[in-house]
Here is the input.
Amino acid sequence: MKRTTFKQLLKKYRDGTATPAERYVVDRWYESLDRGGEKHPSMAEVDEKAMIRSRIWQGVHDRRQRTKWHRHPGVRVAASMALVVSISTLLYWIAQTTTPSAHHPSKPGHAPHTITTSGRQLKQVRLPDSTIVWLNAHSALEVPAAFGDRERRIKLSGEAFFEVKRDTLRPFLVATDGVVVEVLGTSFSIQSYERLQNVNVAVTTGKVLVKSASTPRLSELTMGQSLVYQKATGDYRVDKAMVAERPSWIKGRAELKMASFDELAQTLANLYDVQLTTDDDQVMSYRYNLTLESTLRLEDAMELICTIVGKTYKKEGEGIVEIF
Amino acid sequence: MRVVANLTDIELLDGLRQDREDVFEQLFNRYWEKLHQQAYLRLRNQEEAEDMVQDIFADVWKRRHTLEIKTSLAGYLQAALKYKIIRQAAKANLRRRTQELLLSQMEELEDAVIDLLAVGELNQTIAAAIQRFPENMRKVFLMRTEAFTVAEIADALKLSKQTVKNNTSDALRRLRVVLAEKHPEIPPSFYLVLTLFIGH
Here is the structure.
């Protein structure tokens, strides 16, 4: 059957001008669409289900506020209020479910779509290929208009966890400070904050290829491996990583192991939207081992840090905390 | 917030008419998953399935004061989904992959109907009937079952399009008479479908 015939047939059905034969065929066709009751693949997972539910619920609200119906087949950003409750985090989730309607991905040559997060904010982004990206605080994800045409290339600054939809024909590439990570379908996280000296790639499932500007095949990582890339020198090392199914920051937890002061400061910026400073060399060079949760108050977190490093802290004006 | 538990469809609708958000949420909680599942099964695309479900519930809220449910809410929502999918597919408003999927499903249906012609006893009855067709009618009909278009057949057999059309519908009519006589078990809907797929 030709496309146009098909469309005409459905149009007639809709208008009520279809003959009995046409109605019969459309009815049978519609019945045949559910093909034996396969279940939605991810609905078995409680987390995923809660996420889908809250995305739809949020969408219903958005539509109720809009009179006109816009289709946004492009990038979708959502945050799950249900998840916030279920994982009891104080992180501030923002639903940004709409993309400007000018951003229609079928129109070539327009600007990339950028999703950013501020402090105390996480976002869950669904890309047009159904890849899910969790964006940690103070991060930005840039999705070009041509995403998915031949390859699925995006840019990241900050930290994100990716659950990449498998598509062997269109590789998925994440470019970040000095490093490109290429995958076909897998889940992995990247940490690449500007203020940090290293880029960190950790693989949860599957396999990824890490490239750098100078080396097309820096290293291939598999499940449970991580790579630390030194931005200044281009040196790298591969570690065995304890990789959880999803990184803990998605649930508002920051697990710091042998973390530098900059990493600690980044964590505080993410969780509390404060700028941590110090002039103290000892504080600067200390390696921090601690777990912070967004449910902890800033004051309690600072008490904890100061106890560890044997110092005190003071609040310096708007959003600045100094350890001395 | 008022606690609402296990309301009937009628109570839910009453609540909606009184603009009660909590009742709307309960309605949503009760039906979203099934509806999403149905949409996903048909569209095989998560995002489009979500879009449709969002639309349908937003619509329920928008029309809450005038909404009349004849069967049940579940039945109403299912019908809304069907209407929505047909509407979007008619406008080719869906992603290309989804649109192709829907079309291919129609083609499968079409193939199944045409395959039915070639099965066992039915096939023999049809073959015998076709043998008795006038030559042009036989050629036209066989080409139609091979999915040639009217124009293509007209061109190949050097006939006018109208002649091809007339031949096709005459062939179908004859076939129907023969089949109805020898195979009274064939439902009338089969002829309807046949007419649609071959007779056009």
Chain A has a mean pLDDT of 78. The first helix of chain A runs from residue 3 to 15. Chain A is about 25% helix and 30% strand. The longest strand of chain A covers residues 152-163.
